[in-house]
Amino acid sequence: MSEKLAVPIDVAVGILMKPNGDVLLGQRPDGKPYAGYWEFPGGKVEAGEAILDALKREFVEELGVDVVSAEPWCGVEHVYPHAHVRLHFYISREWRGNPQSLENQAFAWQGCVGVEPLLPATIPLIKWLDELRK
After folding, report:
1. In which order are the strands placed within the sheet that holds 23-27?
2. The domain spanning residue 30 has which CATH number?
3. In the chain, what are the helix, strand and coil shares in percent, each to the nearest 5?
4. 90 φ, ψ (degrees, to nearest 5)
5. C-alpha span between 124 and 120 (Å, rounded)
6. Is 27:105 a contact under the CB 8 Å cutoff?
7. What's the sign of the alpha-carbon dihedral 58, 60, 65, 71?
8. How many domains are there within the chain?
9. Which pTM does this prediction carry?
10. Largest CA distance in the chain
11. Which of 79, 87, 46, 50 lies closest to 67 in space, CA to CA?
12. What is the mean pLDDT of the segment spanning 79-92?
């Protein structure tokens, strides 16, 4: 691999948070890098697409959920062997519909996050989320 890294790929990531603080995590399906790892749902931002619009589109496509509102929370850059990503995290406390597995992925509501393995870029966020919920 060359020393020069590719331009990071922008990814919109959503954290659905219930009033009790539980958050939704999805498991990466077979055929994708890091299959079986748990992450917050989301996906690539298309050219010319606003990050929030990408988040809303991904949640409809992946989970059949209509995000009504979401607030920007944090940004994280992470270099994986297969991609350099810039993750834009949003927290949504308001959505319509119940999550469905539209891409054959498992998902789970978690209070104290206990699913493993977690996608490496997700790990530090769990601690930050615990602080936010206090």
Report:
1. 38-39, 23-27, 107-110
2. 3.90.79.10
3. 20, 40, 40
4. -125, 145
5. 8
6. yes
7. positive
8. 1
9. 0.90
10. 46
11. 50
12. 95
